[in-house]
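User: quick one, fold this
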Amino acid sequence: MIEFLPLVFFPSTVVWVDDDPLLLEMGKRCLSKDYRIESFTSPRACLNAMEHRVSVFQRYPLLSSDTEHDNYYSAAHAPFDLNIADLMLLAQEPNRHSEVSVCIVDYQMNEMDGLAFCHQLTLPSKRILLTGRASEKNIIDAFNQGAISKFIEKNDMSLAETIHDQVKQLSLAFFCQQTYPALCALEAEKKFAVSDPAFIDYFLTWVAKNAIAEYYLSDKYGSFVTYTKSGKKCYFVVHTDASLNDFIEINEQEPDVQGFIEEVRARRRIPFFGTKQESWQIPATQWEPYFYPATALIGREKYYIAVVVATV
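Assistant:
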């Protein structure tokens, strides 16, 4: 099980390098439903093609220097800022699905062996090595050194299923790795839902059950904007006792919202005013559509979860 959720996840590209056309065709059949596939019979051609590939995480850096921080110019500190709204910009990036999350490469190729290829590949993708014998010392050494992420024996009786399962795991691990620095910035003072094992299990189960293809963190409590494989947009809304108590404190003096305040105080419904507006921007007489029944989840703390289907 992963230790934390990636802050963003979307369908990505798998690069497959093999001088056996039959294996490449098998790869397309077993993976093309869930991933974009780029196939190469020549490892050198693949290296040339990937040389100038720019990761979407380079075009959209998740962290920026916090120049307003009191300690910014101190040699002992390196303050960074994370604007969570920037994470959702990735959902509008038309080339995001070209991000290479996993590379599958055959060990035995005439032009270049798979290990040499992996050592020369500069992409941050996870690497799977297909091999006839997994016991070879150089393969095990390469795994221990991090040059490859997994190795799979080609004589595996359920090779296609094994590859699909490993690509699924490694793709998730890739996005965890790419968003880990942003997570560290978010959790500098306090851990939150995305690193809570109970929340991780609940969220990934919900993702699988509802055919969610991509998701983007939308607030510091663990809420996500999600999209199904068919493009349906949903908000996975998360509150904690702390966030709900803050909402009550901010709004409890307003005479026109006392009914809503009591519902929140009793945890019968939770507020969600969207990702681009706050409660104060909406007249109290129009609040009714912004409160939702919630499911309680016990983890490191108590979470209140509602799923809201986007109307536009």
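User: anything notable?
Assistant: Residues 159-186 form the longest helix (28 residues).
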